[in-house]
Amino acid sequence: MLPRSLVTRSVKLNKGLLTCRFYSDGSVGSQRPMGSVNEDYYVKQHEKELLKALKKQLQEQRDKLDNLENTINKLHE
């Protein structure tokens, strides 16, 4: 029989990437309060900032990979 430590494993997730926001606009035909509009604007701006940061990180990683690839190619010559 396997010890319990081999059967279970710990999984750590980045909660920032898994955050999901659900909206409720109220009943059909009702007007949205101004606070909801501001909240939507804030959420969209926050998502834009997160995407911008992720794109920057992606570009940095691509630059590192290009640098490593160039180094490897120089070693093979």
TrEMBL record:
Coiled-coil region(s): 44-71
Protein name: Mitochondrial ATPase inhibitor
Record lineage: Eukaryota, Fungi, Dikarya, Ascomycota, Saccharomycotina
Keywords: Coiled coil
Species in which this protein is naturally found: Maudiozyma exigua (Yeast)
Keyword Coiled coil: yes
Domain of life: Eukaryota
